[in-house]
Task: inverse folding
C-alpha cells in the first residue's frame, strides 16, 4: 500500500530498522550521510536503494529541512554508488517514488538505482 508522504517520520519503518542495524541488508556503500543496499525484490540485474541517514519521509521534507551537507552527501552518494557499480558508461536509471501517486511503500526517503539492462522509454503510457 502506498503511504501518505505528508505524515511525520515513523521510526519503526523498515529502512530505519536497517539503519539502526536491527535488520540485515546487503550493503554496497555507507558514509556519514547515506546508506546504499540491494533491494530485497530486485527488478533489474542491478537494483540498489540509496537512502539518506536522516529521518526524512519525502523530498519535500528533505529539501525543506535537511542541512546543505546532508543534501550534498545524499546526492553525492548516489553518483558514487553508480560509479562504483560500473554503471556510468552503460547508463542506468534513477527512480524516486513519493507518496500515493508515486506508489511509495517505505516511508523513508529513498532513490532506486537500476542498471544492467536497457530500460526503454521512461514510463508506460
Ligand atoms: P518504494 O517505497 O515503492 O519506492 O519501494 C520500496 C522498496 O523497498 C521495494 O522495491 C522493496 C524494498 N524493500 C522493502 N523492504 C525491504 C527490506 O527489508 N530490505 C531491502 N533490502 N529492501 C526492501
Result:
Amino acid at each position: 500500500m502506498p503511504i501518505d508522504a505528508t505524515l511525520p517520520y515513523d521510526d519503526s519503518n523498515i529502512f530505519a530498522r536497517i539503519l539502526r542495524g536491527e535488520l540485515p541488508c546487503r550493503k554496497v556503500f555507507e558514509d556519514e550521510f547515506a546508506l546504499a543496499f540491494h533491494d530485497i525484490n530486485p527488478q533489474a540485474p542491478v537494483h540498489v536503494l540509496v537512502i539518506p541517514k536522516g529521518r526524512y519521509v519525502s523530498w519535500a521534507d528533505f529539501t525543506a529541512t535537511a542541512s546543505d551537507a546532508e543534501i550534498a552527501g545524499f546526492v553525492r552518494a548516489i553518483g558514487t554508488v553508480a560509479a562504483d557499480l560500473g554503471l556510468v558508461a552503460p547508463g542506468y536509471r534513477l527512480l524516486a517514488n513519493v507518496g500515493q501517486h508515486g506508489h511509495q511503500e517505505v516511508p523513508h526517503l529513498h532513490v532506486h538505482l537500476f542498471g544492467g539492462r536497457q530500460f526503454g522509454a521512461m514510463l508506460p503510457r
Observations:
- The CA atoms of residues 82 and 88 lie 6 Å apart.
- The chain has four helices and five strands.
